[in-house]
């Protein structure tokens, strides 16, 4: 099994390794992604990834999504599909980061999507998922995709969250208050199953900022194999990346768990992109390389932007994918 030691990630032989790869989205919004296992294999075999970050939905894990009502009301088919990804990676001596990406604000089968924080139902998800993959040598756990819009105290210790959201594109904005257990409680839930798997933890501002971790907000691992902290960096975020990760990088391994560019002519809903693609992509890859950070680029899916590939034939996009593919080919870990 992997473990951390200071700022390094070590394999079962005690050798320092670097995790480099991509995200393969899809299972957060669809329970029956028939192409995902093949995509994962191709990302490893053709693009030289040694880790795949796989976003999932806690509702689909337990069979609560609308498309599961006919033939997967317990979620076992969905869970077995994730098992197949794990097996494909394990056979290749690669790794999977299980990313709990979408939750439900404590209402099973409702409000399925990205929210501010994990909820009480997320504890049930992690109790089940951590038990299923307890001490599996290929699996790392990512408790929540992109926490945001709460204080660092709520991020760590939990509390009430009042969230403004749209149930779907055709409805008005609504508000809902729910309770989050916080990151520490989710980690404690995982460790209580006996799972020592390395845990990957994102900061605030949609997983971007890690600057307060060393000011009293570090997570206590309580006997596990360690923590990797995760930052998500996009062109609409500030360019002073060192200021947001440097303090944590001095003590912990860092994963750039998401990054990517939409292309120069795009107008992404997230905000204006600060630099043209050629300048921004070269800048972030140079920064990742200089710091020897771990990374999983977003996204190895033609329908989850920023897209690295044009189709499931895996031809890289000129504004993003070509840079990542060339970098993976260059380092070929």
Fold and architecture overview:
The structure is a single chain. The protein contains eleven helices and 13 strands. It is of the alpha/beta class and 333 residues long. The strands form three sheets. The chain has an eight-stranded parallel β-sheet with strand order 7-6-5-4-13-12-11-10. Strands 1-2-3 form a three-stranded antiparallel β-sheet, with no helix packed on it. Strands 8-9 form a two-stranded antiparallel ribbon. Helix 1 runs parallel beside helix 3 and helix 4 (120-132) packs parallel to helix 6 (182-192). The mean pLDDT is 96.
Features:
single chain, 333 residues, alpha/beta, TIM Barrel, three-stranded antiparallel beta sheet, 13 strands, 31% helix, globular
List low-confidence stretches: none
**Sheet having the most strands:** 8 strands, parallel
CATH topology: TIM Barrel
Global structural class: alpha/beta
Q: What's the CATH superfamily, by name? A: Glycosidases
How many helical stretches? 11
Count every beta strand, where a strand is a DSSP E run of 2 or more residues: 13
The succession of helices and strands, N to C, reads EEEEHEHHEHEHEEHEHHEHEHEH
Question: What is the number of domains?
Answer: 1
* Top CATH class: Alpha Beta
| Net shape | globular
Oligomer: single chain
Describe this structure in a few short sentences.
With about 325 residues, this protein is an alpha/beta fold. The protein is built from eleven helices and 13 strands.
Q: Secondary-structure blueprint of this entry?
A:
Elements: E1 3-5, E2 8-10, E3 16-17, E4 20-23, H1 36-45, E5 51-57, H2 58-61, H3 76-91, E6 95-102, H4 120-132, E7 139-142, H5 152-157, E8 159-165, E9 174-180, H6 182-192, E10 199-202, H7 204-207, H8 213-217, E11 227-233, H9 241-249, E12 254-259, H10 277-291, E13 294-297, H11 321-331
Parallel strand pairs: 4-5, 4-13, 5-6, 6-7, 10-11, 11-12, 12-13
Antiparallel strand pairs: 1-2, 2-3, 8-9
Helix pairs in contact: 1-3, 4-6
């Amino acid at each position: 099994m992997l473990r951390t030691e200071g700022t390094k990630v070590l394999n079962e032989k005690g050798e320092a390794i670097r995790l480099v790869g991509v995200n393969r989205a899809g299972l957060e919004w669809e329970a029956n992604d028939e192409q995902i296992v093949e995509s994962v294999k191709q990302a490893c075999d053709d693009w030289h990834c040694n880790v795949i970050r796989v976003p999932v939905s806690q509702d689909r894990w337990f069979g609560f999504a609308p498309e599961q009502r006919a033939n997967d009301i317990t979620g076992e088919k969905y869970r077995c599909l994730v098992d197949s990804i794990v097996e494909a990676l394990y056979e290749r001596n690669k790794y999977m980061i299980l990313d709990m990406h979408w939750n439900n604000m404590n209402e099973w089968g409702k409000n399925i999507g990205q929210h501010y924080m994990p909820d009480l139902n997320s504890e049930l998800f992690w109790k089940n998922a951590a038990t299923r993959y307890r001490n599996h040598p290929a699996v790392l756990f990512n408790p929540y995709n992109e926490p945001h819009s709460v204080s660092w105290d709520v991020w760590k210790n939990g509390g009430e969250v009042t969230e403004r959201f749209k149930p779907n594109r055709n409805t008005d904005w609504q508000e809902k208050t729910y309770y989050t257990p916080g990151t520490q409680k989710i980690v404690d839930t995982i460790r209580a199953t006996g799972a020592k798997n390395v845990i990957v933890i994102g900061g605030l501002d949609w997983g971007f900022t890690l600057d307060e971790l060393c000011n009293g907000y570090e997570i206590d691992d309580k006997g596990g194999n360690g923590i990797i902290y995760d930052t998500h960096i996009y062109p609409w975020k500030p360019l002073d990346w060192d200021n947001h990760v440097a303090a944590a990088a001095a003590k912990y391994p860092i994963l750039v768990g998401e990054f990517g560019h939409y292309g120069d002519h795009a107008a992404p809903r997230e905000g204006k992109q600060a630099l043209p693609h050629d300048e921004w992509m070269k800048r972030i890859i140079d920064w990742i390389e200089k710091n020897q950070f771990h990374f999983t680029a977003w996204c190895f899916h033609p329908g989850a932007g920023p897209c690295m590939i044009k189709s499931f034939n895996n031809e890289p996009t000129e504004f993003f994918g070509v840079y990542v593919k060339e970098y993976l080919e260059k380092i070929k870990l």
